[in-house]
Give the backbone structure.
Amino acid sequence: MEFGIGKVKELGRRIRELGGNRVLVVTDKGLVEHGVAGKVLAVLEQEKLDYVVYDETKPNPRDVDCIAAYGLAQGKEIDFIVGLGGGSSMDTAKAVGTLLSHGGELSDWYGLNTLKKTIIPLICLPTTAGTGSEITFFSVITDTVTQLKMNIVDVHVAPRIALLDPELTLTLPPSVTASTGMDALTHAIEAYTCTIAEPITDGLALHAIDLIVEHLPTAVQNGNHLIARKNMLAASLIAGIAFGNSDVGGVHCMAEAMGGLYDTPHGVANSILLPYVFEYNIPSNPQKHAVVAQRLGARKEGKSTEELAYEGVRLLKQLAETVGIPKMKELGYVNPKDFPYLAKGAIHNVSAPSNPRKASQEDYIRLFEKAYDESGVCI
């Protein structure tokens, strides 16, 4: 991992050092239109590297998109991949790397530790501050047949290098800044409260929470504020390291089910669901949830541990409202009749056992109902 302003300029040299000659760049059309991809391609051209661009990445990357990118790369002697963008581009790049290295069907590699070898070299350059995908060994892909999000979870899928350049995040619009920032906050909170958290991930998660609470509103309000952008990118990275070495929990289980069925942007779904799952989980460990509430700004004076923890629910709703996260009903497409199906997806998620409080399908249905029915307005 390399972090700092101007780090993108080192991309070509790093590819050469790792033996790359023909590069597949996985990105999206938004980054092409805003000129971000062009800056990266110019670095490759300066190093006289051949490249092929796949710019059809979409939010909640689908298996068919990964297969299309793989098809573009076939026969072109690709020996290196660059994942440029948010988590969708980076997850797609990991999946394509898996297919280039292993062949077969993408579904052959879903699950835990299924890969036989390290994928071809991959460098990730995040343009959002949220997913942490640049340093994780997960690739989350929507299966278009089942409409569920599936995971490739294997150290062999991890990027060789992550280049984090805050300047690449300056073009991020406020709505995406908000949702990806809240995604990073969800990573940090769930990494801290999940069943397999440990002292090192606790320290990382709490530091990420501090950075996000301080800098996310500024980054949303003023996208050119380089200090806020730099600290949000650092927070995303730190939260990614935290949950990559512990886990996430119920928020992600529910959000990934929504993403699979409705194509809801992952950060938006996490943001909407986080206060309700946080509230549900408080009885499992009031002390840890109280610590999170204090990091969010709750005052301890005169409150019991439980009261302090529940103050965190209000503060999570308040932060989401401050940065402009929509309510679930405002999405316009969520149907309560789907909640049993979404809840079934949640309980079968690979991270379900890590949620600090055991949740049944009926529990997840009630959480979806609560997030749907409540206005989310702070009182």
